[in-house]
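Researcher: Re-running this chain for the archive, since the previous output was lost when a drive failed. Same request as before.
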Amino acid sequence: MDYHLKINEEPVTVSVIQGDENTTRIAIGDRVYDVTGTRMDSHRIHMWINGKGENAFVERNGSGKNIIINGSCHTVDDMDHPSLTSKSRKKSMGIPDSVTPPMPSLVVAVLVAEGASVVKGQGLVVVSAMKMETTLAAPYDGIVKEIRTAIGEKVNPGDVLVEIERLNNE
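Model: Regenerated structure tokens:
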């Protein structure tokens, strides 16, 4: 079965070659992955990808999901989902204008200042959870409107850490 996705704004076809209760083999382009996973809670999944253990945090983002693996956030939209057929609805359900932590965390660094110009993917805040540091990145180009956190502060999902004003209306 093929899935038509948009991953970080790039169209991608993901093919499920075979699957059973324990392992799913998927192909993305010419790369093939054997994946098994265990759901840890409503947002966390521990996966084995080609024998390598990975933790993933998954959160709903409008019509798609944000998936964070090894500190990198990947925005994934299902291009076959009915909500993506309307361009105006896609804009209203798009990327949020703020940066929030994926899980309860401790802020260990703030990498930008208010008024700074940022580009998509640029590190903004570093948080630590479960002995792992994660750099939260800018979801798009913009200007830092407000920093709402400080080093040493305990933060939770949904807490707005950095608010960014979008430079262009994509």
